[in-house]
Amino acid sequence: MADTDFDVLIIGGGPGGYVAAIRAAQLGLKTAVVEKADLGGICLNWGCIPTKALLRSSELFHTMENAGSYGLSAKGVGFDLAKVVERSRAVSGRLTRGVGHLMKKNKVTVIDGEGKLAGPGKVAVTGKGKGDYAARHIILATGARPRVLPGLEPDKKLIWTYFEAMVPEKMPKSLIIVGSGAIGIEFASFYRAFGVEVTVVEMLPQILPVEDEEIAGLARKQFEKQGIRIITSATVKSVDKVKNGLTATVEEAKGKTQQIAAERMISAVGVVGNVEDVGLEALGVKTANGVVVADGFGRTNVAGVYAIGDVAGPPLLAHKASHEGVVCVEKIAGLADVHPVDKLKIPGCTYCRPQIASVGLTEKRAREQGHQVKVGRFPFLANGKAIALGEDQGLVKTIFDAATGQLLGAHMVGAEVTELIQGFVVAMNLETTEQELMHAIFPHPTLSEMMHESVLDAYGRVIHM
Ligand SMILES: Cc1cc2nc3c(=O)[nH]c(=O)nc-3n(C[C@H](O)[C@H](O)[C@H](O)COP(=O)(O)OP(=O)(O)OC[C@H]3O[C@@H](n4cnc5c(N)ncnc54)[C@H](O)[C@@H]3O)c2cc1C
Q: How far is the CA of 89 from the centre of ligand 1 (A)?
């Protein structure tokens, strides 16, 4: 007879759910995860990982096409889209299987099926693992799905969501991407690198709307140089479908309307939480703006019910989901000194070319919050390693509170910045001030030296500029 009684039962096996399960098991809690599709969730199957595999192919293709600038020759450079996609799926499959092994290793019970709250401490599962389960603590980690705008309903053929965009059968000649958040911009980079005519339509005045204005502006210039057409302060009013393509009517804030024809469209206008059909209403679990309302420990308004990850609201990032999972089960286990998740210290990365990475307050937000700021900047143009790599476009920007020297935010655009940002994340977590950062020794030659120089610049001490 299968086990049906647990200390912790988690609905959803994405990076929120499976990481929470491992940590719960480490803490000696009898744990189960209910998953209706594949372990690893969107992140491993349809998000972070497969997109990075696709982007690796497009980056290499770009580098090979530019072999001449490195004194190399690469003749007949081409690509096989089916193989590019196959590799991405294989990378995803490998990691998903890995999560299965981790569940076994940690003695977490995996229940195949769809879970629903069925009363206090109760979860009903339909599907292969059908049954009634009990748990003292139930964590909702059901994730999110693409937001659908009226008139832009994805049909999987002409209008894609990220699901179809990740497994194209044929490279379209032209593509309209609606929405310029991380997902939209990563697809813009991928498709443009393979020669697709890409138009990005963004409702707000700035692409990558959550990023620092200056950084987003520099990124935009680079994208436009690569031939990506960007229209901001604009909305897609309607779409007319034809046999193998569509025409979008795009209205700009200035009142100007234009028709843009393309073979395919990707709707990348955000995601909505999977809050339906999980039994929230029966228990009276509060939702707002399409997500479950939870505190810094994942606790909802109903005792014994928790929410983590995308279903608990932004930022919609895998590492945020995982961290929330860890904090949630540590609190459940009664560990001392568990800190609530501090959203300000969650880094965000976009793996386009050039990459974008940030943590903390943007310059605008810092000023809006009343900080007197000191801002440091250091361009890739002046960094030896960047020049040697052939990647001399980009900027590292740091923002400090002028009165206290507290690092308020760091923002970067350029090659490999997604690997650099963690230095500033650690610094912010340690409540580092400019003094410690200035005294730290950075290895030479590295891109990380720009982090140092940016801090020095904020205090009028920059060396290589
Ligand atoms: C194209 C794309 C690229 C992305 N790139 C990045 C990136 O580079 N970095 C980053 O940090 N984030 C990225 N994200 C976001 C990231 O994927 C999500 O933030 C992350 O997956 C959220 O984790 P989660 O555990 O909350 O939910 P999910 O990963 O969505 O997992 C939820 C799981 O719950 C299951 N489920 C739902 N309802 C039920 C139910 N009733 N019963 C049983 N199972 C259920 C689902 O099948 C799913 O497996 C990307 C997203 C997309 C779409």
A: 16
